[in-house]
Amino acid sequence: MIPVTIVTGCSGAGKTTLLHHLQSTGALDKAAVIVDDSSHIESSSLRVFKTEEKMMTISGDFLRYSVRADVIKAVNQILDEKTASHIFIETTGLADPAPVVQTFLMASGLQQHVEINAVITVVDTCHIQSQLQQFSEAAVQIAFADVILMNKSDAASFKEVERAESSVLSLNPFADMYQVSYCRTNPENLLHQYSFNLEHALTMRQERVTEPPHLNDLQSHTITISSPLDPVKVSAWIQWLVQKRGDNLLRCKGILHLEGQTEVIVLHGVHTFLSCHSIRRWHPGEEKKTEIVLIGKNLCVDELKRGLKACQAA
Questions:
Q1: What is the spatial distance between Cα 104 and Cα 116, in angstroms, rounded to a whole number?
Q2: Strand bridging mode 263-270 / 249-256
Q3: Would you say domain 217-309 falls under CATH 3.40.190.10?
Q4: CA distances in angstroms from 173 to 55, 107, 251, 252, listed in the order given
Q5: Domain extents for the chain?
Q6: pTM for the model
Q7: pLDDT digits (tens, 9 = 90+) for 127-143
Q8: What's domain 2-191's architecture?
Q9: What confidence category does residue 225 fall into, taking pLDDT thresholds of 50, 70 and 90?
């Protein structure tokens, strides 16, 4: 399986700078890069595929999903060449990452050959506050991130950095975050995430979880329940979540404690795509609980909590 890393962020944040940095470290030596037709990345030693965004809709499980037809075409071309060991995709400045992510989760022709490594969001520390107020896409890009690079941190004051990180973490409490200058960071922080692989359970930093501010109506919510849940009721709740709230649900990540189940169940999703999978047995003495992070627009946290709490086993 070839890993795919999606690089997103507002214009000027440093996405192309990140790719040039990775190239200088040798991390892109056997990689292919898919960029928008207007991208300025050029290199004689880098395999670059330029595309023009083309959306298409596919159906599955009574739902419809938006995917990127141009990305599918470029990836198939890369696979035909049989030379790339990693694929990077740089999105445009105000792009919604959802269709790109859903392309790899839903396009059946790609699932046997590639898997998502991570969504990396590059943040302009000096300007993210104003960007969050002006562009809803800035918040969405943060919500989708598995890794957040707080770029230009060296050019911001301590208070600006603190304020920027607080806003970012309120939108996405489970992403790894790094303060960087010119996107210089150890490639190992980025290249081996495999965040959409269900073998990687939720590792959320509790100190990050706070009541989020309302930024363009996008918020993150954490629901924790100690008592075991009824598997049938949980299945029905997940179906309701996907069908009724999926369009507003950007990311969902968590673990489930199910009655009669000796294994940890991981829940992971993007919009209307949600998957559950057992990963291992509960360790002796380990606290058994259900903990789910939901990131989305206009989500009613009371409604979500009531629905999940109603799934508790009798």
A1: 7
A2: antiparallel
A3: no
A4: 30, 29, 11, 12
A5: 2-191, 217-309
A6: 0.79
A7: 999 999 988 889 889 98
A8: 3-Layer(aba) Sandwich (3.40)
A9: very high
